[in-house]
Amino acid sequence: MGAAIWSSADVARAQVQERVYPKAAPTAQDSAAGGKQLTDKQIFANPSVLGMGPSKGLIVRYERMPRFGVSSSAQVQGLNDFSTEATKNARLSIKGYIPAWNRPHLKVIVGLSYEREEFQFASLPTTYELYDNIENKGLKSTAVQVAVIRPVDDVHWYLARIKGELSGDYTSDQLTKSDYSRFSAEAIYGWKRSPNFSWGVGFQYGYTFGRLSIYPAVIYNRTFNSRWGIEALAPARVTLRYNANDNSIFYVGYTVDGYNYIVNLSRAPLTRKNADGTPDLSKATLSTLELRETEVKFRLRWEHEVLSFLWMGAEAGYRYNYAFDAFDRTNADREKIIDSQLNGAPYASLELFITPPRKLLEKSGVRR
After folding, report:
1. How far apart are CA 71 and CA 81, in angstroms?
2. Beta strands of the chain (E only): which ranges?
3. Which of 21-30, 110-119, 133-142, 359-368 has the lowest mean pLDDT?
4. Could you give the CA distance from residue 200 to residue 192 in angstroms, rounded to a whole number?
5. Which of 120, 130, 353, 367 could form a disulfide with 59 if both were Cys (CB 3.0 to 4.6 A apart)?
6. Is 283 domain-assigned?
7. Bridging pattern class, strands 20-21 and 237-245
8. Which of 342, 281, 274 lies closest to 67 in space, CA to CA?
9. Mean pLDDT across 13-41
10. Which residues form the DUF6268 domain (predicted)?
11. pTM given for the model
12. Distance between the two ends of the chain, CA-based, in angstroms?
């Protein structure tokens, strides 16, 4: 979604695996190798390591949480505090990754995605502006992104990604509104120390922590032996991997996910008020709110090969909500209007994803 920045490690794993290429023509010079001739077995560096899961071309995922408590605290005059229960919180996501360009020293991957989050609350209508305006609405994110992986030689690599999306409760006739548009980016420079160890440093710019911000990022992918490994894009995600066999992989760790939506207050517009309860004429009536949601998930995940081209993923864990806050998007002060807290709750998800068939990878020399 708008806040969940697409992981650099996933970009690399989506379409790029370690490959061995034949020797270059005798008179050719390779600029990315510092002008040196390629050897007979030249290996080009990338962020992935041996033992990582299969590449993902098309992903369909559904996530659901049981009933949990919700409480809100008003941050401006004229609103009340409120508590209720969410009887439903579900997310559906569909993502696809296409290798637009795949050469030894330049790989370009285009990603398309659609994600939808829904809430339902007890005792409808709740009579509370925020909840009544997101009840049974689709909080959507439609995005396109481009990732570029640039191997330099057998050690060094670059990775860059830009993403544009529309995020909020928009309808088809509101797709051109600039209020719903979001932008995020990241850039990483890394080192491939061995087929089992790759790491890099850089930055991410986006909504992972709710508000638009820039923060450092570290990729650390390492396979310790035939069973154990670690995959991290810190601070957003750290995962310990266990390869049970060629067909099953287990993961345990945490992720930080952020979502940023524009919510249209068509069902209950909000008027700012003075301390005496009269309307604050210096503030325009709010027709939209910016909803910032940040959560930490502690998760256990299992991926299993169903067919040569089809895998399934099952995930369960505990969701800790850090923020679920609404901000003024109409007036210049951009003030926080409502400070909410979603109680912690377990969650579960199911996922199906399409991968390149194992036989095709073996014929092309790619190591899964």
Report:
1. 8
2. 20-21, 42-43, 58-65, 68-74, 82-103, 106-121, 139-151, 156-168, 181-194, 197-206, 213-223, 228-234, 237-245, 248-264, 288-305, 310-328, 336-342, 345-354
3. 21-30
4. 9
5. 353
6. yes
7. unpaired
8. 342
9. 43
10. 143-264
11. 0.83
12. 28
> In Å, how far are 103, 130, 220 from 43, measured between CA atoms?
13, 54, 20
| Residues whose CB falls within 8 Å of the CB of residue 341, separated by 6 or more in sequence, listed in order | 70, 71, 72, 321, 324
Domain that holds residue 192: 8-364
Q: What is the pLDDT of residues 298-318, one digit of tens each?
A: 999 999 999 989 999 999 999
Residue with tokens 């508000």: 211
Torsion of CA 51, 55, 61, 65, to 10 degrees: 20
Mean pLDDT over the full length of the chain: 83
Tokens describing residue 75: 């941050």
Distance CA 53, CA 68 (A): 33
Q: Are 157 and 190 in contact (CB under 8 A)?
A: yes
Considering Cα of 310, then 311, then 314, then 320, what sign does the dihedral take?
negative
Establish if 1 belongs to a structural domain: no
Give me the CATH number covering residue 309.
2.40.160
Domain total for the chain?
1
Residue 107 lies in a domain: yes
CA 217 to each of CA 24, 169, 184: distance values in angstroms, whole numbers, following the listed order: 35, 30, 14
Q: What values do phi and psi take at 35, rounded to 5?
A: 85, 5
State the Cα–Cα distance between residues 79 and 274, nearest whole angstrom. 11
Helix ranges, 61-176 (H): 129-134
Phi, psi of 200 (to 5 degrees): -160, 165
Would you say residue 3 lies in a domain?
no
User: Positive or negative, the Cα torsion across 353, 359, 363, 368?
Assistant: positive
User: In whole angstroms, what is the distance from residue 281 CA to residue 291 CA?
Assistant: 24
Q: Give Cβ neighbours of residue 171 (< 8 Å, ≥ 6 apart).
A: none
CA angle 120, 121, 126 (to 5 degrees): 130
Q: For the chain, what is the largest distance between any 2 Cα atoms, rounded to a whole number of angstroms?
A: 84
